[in-house]
Design brief:
Layout (H helix, E strand, L loop, with lengths): L3 H14 L7 H13 L18 H17 L16 H18 L3 H14 L2 E9 L2 E11 L1 H8 L4 E15 L2 E17 L2 E7 L4 E3 L13 E9 H6 L4 H6 L10 H6 L17 E11 L2 E8 L3 E7 L5 E5 L12 H27 L2 E4 L8 H6 L13 H4 E4 L9 H8 L2
Antiparallel strand pairs: 1-5, 1-11, 2-4, 3-4, 6-7, 7-8, 8-9, 9-10, 12-13
Length: about 425
């Protein structure tokens, strides 16, 4: 039996060596694909020239998404169970209906979950879905006023309710024309409810880790698979972790994000803001499924080598989708990566077309220096319609436009070739 220190050391080594680590090769490729999808600048822009960026990557990805969503989000096509024999037909139909009910009714964000899963498969190599039985607790407060004794007793019998404050008072009521005084109760309860449902969630690719020797798209065949994410302390307490351990974890603060996460959350208003409530602070938590001494274990750990839990597991919760899998590799490729070079070429062609058009419509001028008067430069640089330019010598001797031939028309056939690719 390995000690907690030995287990933490193994977990740290696995996360450090895993594929998908921040700013690794796979992470950098996914960040670049996101930049292309968002038509970010290529980095070779020249001041004063066109900096347009085409949207070939997003056009391809967004063009595929509707047909995929129609295929997987209709009731008949999402999940179906086939009967082995005639006696299994009723049970297979029930299983099909129940699975659809769990996904679409019990998981309120099911559409966006499936959307994110498929989008990541098209633009981020692999899409990762997490499915698990959620037993976390939610704590809410409920206040009841004017309860009768019978109503109060029924609430006290509810195992989820814990009384916090109670006030007994009398009220006057009228029954059959007679005023009577009755005893009523005002009670404030704390309700602690377990979710107890199958939860599905799309995992951001930058949070996903898998052992470097993984050779199959199915993560259950890997020695190690895990997730490193930011979680609120209140959420960890709802998951049942020890309060002292949770409160001892360091808050995320203003840590530098990875290149991939920066590409995904690149707006200023998407950055982390500090909160005065320590329960709402986010901390780094690692969840992994690792075979130790031949047994699959579910291990939660926090930043600073804090072991939160170590329990046996019968399976891992991650499910991976790849639109273009590569044999003998866990990470495949995707349509976004296949058209990134086309976007770069089309961007270059469009920039050259626009630069040529700008120079044709607004050519530079050749000016004889001795013909320049006090008002000559102002007149030449003015864009006022019908404006005048004053020279100290005849115009034919003082000025001539540096005409640029319009060659952009010769580029359109080449651009058409790539648009049809």
């Amino acid at each position: 039996m390995k000690s907690d220190r030995e287990i933490l050391s193994i977990v740290d080594q696995e996360f450090l060596a895993a594929m998908g680590a921040p700013d690794g090769e796979i992470s950098s490729e996914r960040a670049l694909a996101l930049d292309y999808y968002n038509s970010k600048p290529l980095g070779n822009e020249v001041k004063g020239k066109s900096s347009v960026v085409t949207s070939d990557v997003s056009d391809v990805v967004n063009g595929i998404m509707p047909s995929l969503l129609r295929m997987f989000t209709t009731k008949d096509n999402l999940v179906s169970f086939d009967a082995v024999g005639p006696e299994d037909e009723d049970l297979a139909a029930q299983e099909t209906d129940y699975t659809s009910h769990i996904i679409f009714k019990k998981n309120e964000d099911s559409f966006m979950t499936l959307y994110s899963w498929m989008f990541d498969a098209l633009a981020q190599k692999n899409g990762i879905l997490k499915a698990w039985f959620d037993e976390s607790e939610t704590v809410t407060e409920e206040t009841y006023k004017g309860l009768t004794e019978e109503e109060a007793f029924k609430l006290f019998e509810d195992d989820e309710l814990e009384p916090q404050e109670q006030e007994v008072r009398t009220e006057t009521s009228t029954a059959e024309g007679v005023e009577i005084e009755v005893t009523v109760y005002d009670i404030r309860f704390k309700r602690t409810a377990k979710r107890n449902l199958v939860k599905i969630e799309a995992v951001p690719p930058e949070e996903y880790r898998i052992s470097a020797d993984a050779r199959h798209i199915d993560p259950s065949k890997a020695r190690f698979v895990g997730q490193e994410r930011e979680v609120k302390r209140s959420e960890l307490l709802g998951m049942g972790f020890d309060e002292d351990l949770v409160m001892s974890l360091p808050a995320c603060g203003n840590q530098t994000n990875s290149t991939e996460k920066t590409s995904r959350r690149s707006k200023e208003d998407e950055t982390r803001q500090s909160t005065p409530d320590p329960m709402e602070e986010e901390v780094i938590v690692r969840e992994c499924y690792l075979k130790i001494d031949g047994e699959l274990r579910q291990i939660f750990s926090g930043e600073g080598s804090q072991l939160l839990s170590n329990e046996p597991a019968d399976r891992q919760p991650f499910h991976v989708l790849s639109s273009m899998p590569i044999p003998h590799k866990h990470f495949g490729t995707c349509p976004a990566e296949m058209v990134m070079d086309i976007q770069e070429i089309c961007t270059t062609l469009w920039r050259q077309i626009l630069d040529n058009l700008y120079q044709t419509n607004n050519p530079r001028n050749a000016v004889y220096e001795q013909a320049i008067g006090d008002e000559t430069w102002d007149g030449l640089t003015s864009t006022e319609l019908g404006g005048n330019v004053v020279f100290d010598r005849p115009v034919s001797e003082a000025w001539a436009p540096m005409t640029v031939p319009f060659t952009a028309g010769n580029t359109f056939p080449m651009l058409e070739v790539f648009n049809k690719t």
